[in-house]
Amino acid sequence: xxPVSDGARCSDPGVPAGPARGRLGVxxxxxxxxxxxxxxxxxxxxxxxxxxxxxxxxxTQEEPQGEAAPSPPEVQVILRDFQIVLPRGSEGxxxxxxxxxxxxxxxxGPSYHNVxxxxxxxxxxxxxxxxxxxxxxxxxxxxxxxxxxxxxxxxDFGAHYLLGMTAEIEVTP
Length: 173
Fold this sequence. Notes:
173 residues, 1 helix, elongated
């Protein structure tokens, strides 16, 4: 029987297994092609150090932390039962909002509706400031008013404006 000496590998298949004392310790044999535990530990620690070092660099590319830009105010206008329902506080079918306000038109009725910036006299005669797509029940569409002025609105889907689906939006500076 030939014992395996310190630091040597036993490559002779005829040598019986015996207590080995190599770099890995007593009773532990190195397997050809296997990763040594120390190499694995060092590699893992280096990878972890690289990940931690990249962390702050990745954070600097994100949006700056601090106060976020305030979102513009949003007002909801409901389209329902052949009416344009303005928020509480609106008088005489007119909604008054400041410049930059987002108006979200929500179809809560059982039929399709849309919103056109036009008066009933102009409903089909000119292109207004905006024209929403046709909104199915439950859908919504939003428009941001950027310019002061008085904007008549109506639903021209199936001539619903003839049934009273009209209102005005006044945008103040």
